Each structure stands twice: as structure tokens, then as C-alpha cells.
Amino acid sequence: MKNWRCTVCNYIHEGEQPPEKCPVCGADKSKFVEVSDEEARQIQEAKSKKQLERERKALEKHRNEAGNSQAGPDGYSGSSGVGASKLMDFINKQMVRNHAHPVSVHIPNGVLPVSVLFVLLAIVFSAETMASAAFYNSIVVLLSMPLVIYSGYNAWQRKYGGVLSTIFIVKIIAAATVAVTCLLVVIWHIFDPDMLVEAGTGSRAGFFLLNLVMLAAAVIAGFIGGKLVFKD
Fold first, then answer.
1. How far apart are CA 145 and CA 221, in angstroms?
2. What pLDDT digit, counting tens, does each position of 115-131 carry?
């Protein structure tokens, strides 16, 4: 019997062929790679109790897709009253179901390239209007990051069991880099608003480099997110 590892969530499948779809995270069969018995054993032993429990529940849900006939959508039932925790749980489930993270990510991914372009134009032409436009675009990105990070964390926990596989480690680092660098860009601009338009200001190169790091991190996070969403 062969062992197949899901490269997204580390689920181990036993069989001659990988499953068409990962029963734990929903990844396509192309995300599975064959591993030896020893590798499979080591992967299972490295999983935390919390991760194993989530995996067990996901497998049970996969085997019994009918679920609880008394519950509403996503297992939510309002018959016992709506408490704060139940309401939050319902909202979190709906966020995953309606793809809140991929939708919210479009804000920084769409605005950041424009913001960096405005920074470059402000430097080249010493244009105060371009510098202001870059600043306000950075504000939009910064304000969107709490929703992006929370919806991503929620999807990671609920859809992928919170597994710290390589793909998620890189995505988490990239997202954190975007948030931190964006905050630094906004603070820097607040304390030195004229640096982009004053010729000979040495900090302009550093400011532009910081923007490029922010943009590169967003591209990496978006690329990995696309791989997860489209499962190609």
C-alpha cells in the first residue's frame, strides 16, 4: 500500500492512488506526493493532538456528508438562542464559506502596485501630489490588513486545520511582512512628508526600497493564495 501526503495540510492517504480531493482541506489530487512508510510515520508523529483531532473530525465529516439534519447551513441552528460565541462561530463559518479572505486580499494586492508607482513618480518628478496619493493609498492598505489577516487566519484554522506546512509558513511570513512594512511606510511619511519631493534627500532610496519589499511580500502571499484557491 502506498502513502500519499497532501502538501497543503499534511494529511496522509493510504492507497494505490491519491484521492481526487483531500478529505481534510479539499486540495486537488495534484497536491499529493508519494512518501515512504517511514516518512508517513514521521509526519503523523509530528502532528499535534489538536491537529490530529481536527483531522479526525474532517474525515468523519467527509464520510458522513449528510451531517446533522436538524442543523441549518454549516451546522448552525438558531433554536437554542444566539449567544455571542455562537454568533461569532456562525460569522467565521460564513467568512470561509463565502471566501472572505480571497475577496479582502484584492484590496492590498490591487492598491499596492499603484501606491509604489506613485512613490516612484513622486521621486522622479518631485511631485507632491504623487507623494500624497502614495500616502493615502498606503493608508487604505493598512486599514485593510486587519480584515485580511483575520480572515486568512480564520480560513487557515477552519479549512486547513491550522497546519504549519511550508506553504502556510511562507504565506504567514509574507502577510506579516506586508503589514509591518506598510505600517512603517505610513509612519515614515507622517514624520517626513517632504522626503519624496526634496531633491537630494538620502532617505528617498530607503523609503522606495521599503515599498518594494512590501510589494514583493504581497506578490508572494498572493501567488500562494492563488495556488490554494485554484488548486492547480
1. 13
2. 999 999 999 999 999 99
Q: HSE, CB side, 13 Å, CA atoms: give it for residue 147.
A: 16
Contact between 1 and 15 (Cβ < 8 Å): yes
Can you read off the three cell numbers belonging to residue 205? 532610496
On whether the pTM is more than 0.85, the answer is no
Write b or e for each residue in 152-183: b if 16 or more Cβ atoms lie within 10 A of its Cβ, otherwise e: bebbbebbbbebebebbeebbebbebbbebbe
pLDDT, one tens digit per residue, over 159-207 is 887 887 888 999 999 999 999 999 999 999 999 988 888 866 678 999 9
Measure the CA–CA gap between 194 and 128, rounded to whole angstroms: 8
